[in-house]
Automatic annotation (TrEMBL):
GO terms for biological process: Mo-molybdopterin cofactor biosynthetic process. The keyword Magnesium applies. The lineage of its organism: Bacteria, Bacillati, Bacillota, Tissierellia, Sedimentibacter. Belongs to the MoeA family. Its EC number is 2.10.1.1. Residues 173-309 form the MoaB/Mog domain. It comes from Sedimentibacter saalensis. This is Molybdopterin molybdenumtransferase. Pfam families: MoCF_biosynth (PF00994).
Amino acid sequence: MKSVNIEEAVGQVLCHDITQIIKDVKKDVVFKKGHVIKKEDIPVFLSVGKEHIYIWEKQDGMLHENEAADILYSICKNEYMKPSAVKEGKIEVISEIDGLFKVDKEKLYEVNSIGDMMIATRHGNTIVRKGDKLAGTRVIPLVIEEEKMKKAQEIGGGKPILKIMPLKHKKIGIVTTGSEVFHGRIKDAFGPVIVSKFSEFDSEVIGQTIVDDEREEITAAIIKFIENGSDIVVCTGGMSVDPDDRTPGAIKDTGAEIVSYGAPVLPGAMLLVSYYSYQGRKIPVIGLPGCVMYSKRTIFDLILPRLMADDILNKSDIDKLGQGGLCLNCETCTYPNCGFGKGM
């Protein structure tokens, strides 16, 4: 690549895009890479401040920004994704489906630490819709060492750093505990909230069972829902540490593997996550704290998309929610377009 005075560049091939910016009017490419420069183009080049332009001269060991951008996209791409057209060394990654977006944060950091290149993504473990922008890639200089791009590819190790997990249709069973509800002393207010939350996804609530505060009854209700085809069982009520709150023990009595009882999230600290093994599948059995009934957004909103995509949660996943795990209870809620649940 060499620099040429624009008056002497007629007939030469432009090696990079030229962008024109007019405040509040236009920001777009006026000449694309590969354009053969004509005499009548000269005033336009001068109007955008280009008295000299770069003509591409292929050099061993160096890559043009657009070639390098293709490599960055190859590091990101996975199933259910497509690229935008390359433009000024940039490629955007677009979702082809609705799903749960995942990011390998460690590999992303390593690539961005190399220098002269970047990948910017939206937050992982969030819902994306078909057509959403997932990430943008760019090579900073006009040309970059091929060795640097090879280093970036090695970080990926042949595995994409981005992933979309398709959302699944789920059948939901709700087990509601509490003598006050069971005996009709108060009306259940938890069930409608759970139904509303699941209505945001492709799901069907196949039933709600209201039981007294007896561990055996709670355990039996959970297992019955699973045997009747529930993909997720949600338990409401009896989730605190009071002696007469029996739900955590009842979930354990099913034989389910307890992943975590407690989460570094407010509202939602008393969440219980477990999995019941049934016919080769892991069925989530979730104990929801009372805050889910009356707080607009809670820990349940953070884990629900992952449950709907069969993203198996482990204790580390729950522990990492601490940073960003404080809901500010804003007067006007903008979730998910806020910091709640979005740690580093």
